[in-house]
Amino acid sequence: MPRNLYITALEERCGKSLVVLGIMELLKKQVNRVAIFRPIIANLEFDKPDHDISLIIEHFKLELDYEDSYGCTMREAFNLINIGREDDLHDLILKKYKNLEENYDFVLIEGTGVQGQETTFETELNCDIAANLGAPLILVASGRRKTVQGINQTLQLSVESHEERGVSVAAVMVNRAAPEVHKHKLIQPRHISQPFSKIPVFVIPERSELSSPSIGDVARWLDGTIIFGQERVNSLVGEYVIAAMRVENFLNYITPGCLVITPGDRNDVILASFSARSSKAYPEVSGIVLTGGLIPNDNVKKLIEGWSGAPIPIICVKGHTYLVIQQLHDLYTRIDPRDTQKIASALGTFAAHVDAQTLRDQVVASVPTRVTPKMFEYVLLERAARNRQRIVLPEGNCERILRAADILQRRGVADLTVLGKEDEVRGLATSCGLDTTHLVIIDPLTSSLLEPFVEKYVELRKHKGMIADVARDRMSDITYFATMMVHMGYADGMVSGALHTTAHTVRPAFEFIRTRPGVSIVSSVFLMLLRDRILVYGDCAVNPNPNARQLAEIALSSAETARTFGIEPKVAMLSYSTGSSGSGEDVDKVADATRIAKELIGERGLDIALEGPLQYDAAIDPEVARTKLSNSDVAGHATVFIFPDLNTGNNTYKAVQRAANAIAIGPILQGLNKPVNDLSRGCTVDDIVNTVAITAIQAQALKE
Fold it and tell me: What does the DSSP 8-state code read for residue 19?
């Protein structure tokens, strides 16, 4: 069973609370510890807690602190988005959600309460949050005052737009449906085209006891005082009747269950309403709202108090009549945590019209398999922090490196060593407002490690005629010194390249860290963080024109790297031809590499799905794959893409990065005995943070 579910409204006043109540009751029957989480709640006013969170926590008696049950307020969210810090918003939400996920068996997530006609912004925001939390969606739509055709069109567009954004839709609830919609059950999967046909649609009819406000709802909404009839606060309100005319005319407008709104000094209207209540000739009035802060005089009070018939609740409010009518127009009935009758009605209605087993099966089947960039970045930092590794950053005179180091320290991702002159490094950090309290700074030129490193380097390179003076010059170089720290066990990994070329960064690693047993070639991959998935591209940075054997080794190394980062490897050996449809020297090389890779997989007992030659479209698009290579487990579903040469790979990763607005993390070196990774000289602080986390995870994997 999945561990979360996201409920989101497609429009305002669709009765989302009923759905949340119903699904929480289902969950409580089969899951021990369940939490409610709202990523964004309405702006807090007068210290009142969020209505829906309070409803769920109180009714189901959840062991959950209120402050842990939401991410932030809508005002806080807008402030971050308006200054271009939407990533910070998602980080905040993800962090609070993960805290719940660690302590509960299941987290039910409720999206924002959509308001107004312009719902696109909130719909997209909820969609992005659901994707980042890896949660299948239940969409809640309103069927009130809508035709079947109108509902169908709304749902079709909504499902398509959500799935295009990489979110899995588990089910759709059409709530508050008109009798003709529910009676004929016209909104069913068989009546709706793909991709909607496999998604169950549950139609829940409008229930007056749920959609109509009670006297208590009206009093709370208007901040009024119930001065009579307190025992009938659960009476439901029908229409609103404004009594501004003479009594003989007012009586013509009374309807069953109506709420009479009149100035507080209209004693005649008050008495006429009571009389109508006890007369068989007129419908019963549900209650009276007295406006202007006026209350009946003593004689009228005495009459009301001595009334022998059923009492009529009377609410006294401060606003004038027109203002009160405006306020009531915006009243939307909510299920109060203390209203046990309304809660029982809601749960009964949900149970009667939602097949629990179908919903349960569909939610399990709809668990998203895609990983968003934000999810992936969060998991990177989390995994690295679980078993902190020692990472050396040789470029201590780079502001971006120091800013990244500050973030990494604060988040506890790794234990860092920075190279450079200590006074210069700390001076630069201080000028940037960064904390270096826990940062280890080593100056290679004055370090006690320099001479031992020189001796070791001479030993390692004596077959090349290395002498001490040359070795000392090399070890005085920050990259050589940092790489030797890794080789000698003073650090678990190195990250460099913000100020240096790739060749300068990786040359020392090639010289004396070298490849792991069974690996013939050092290669690289980029982790391509697309909007709705993570792909692995190799080799796009190191080997210009690998031969068939080397290409096979690159494929296996890339598959291993993918698995290290939680990506199930389905390896596509890329060419300009799919299967046996083409010929030529370049195609033959990829075909030979595929054959060798499959032999190595068998010899080493590896569990890797691999296919080639494949064109890129056949590797990634299921529709194209069905046409070009229908019997393949990889075609159409590839996660690891092996390019035939550096020219193809480097250009492709940059094209995808720019055209698809993807995040490219790398190059990540693979095949070395210990992890060393290169940064782009144009890297951002976030790039450095991610690369350090990746290096730490590689170090963890090598120690396992």
Answer: H
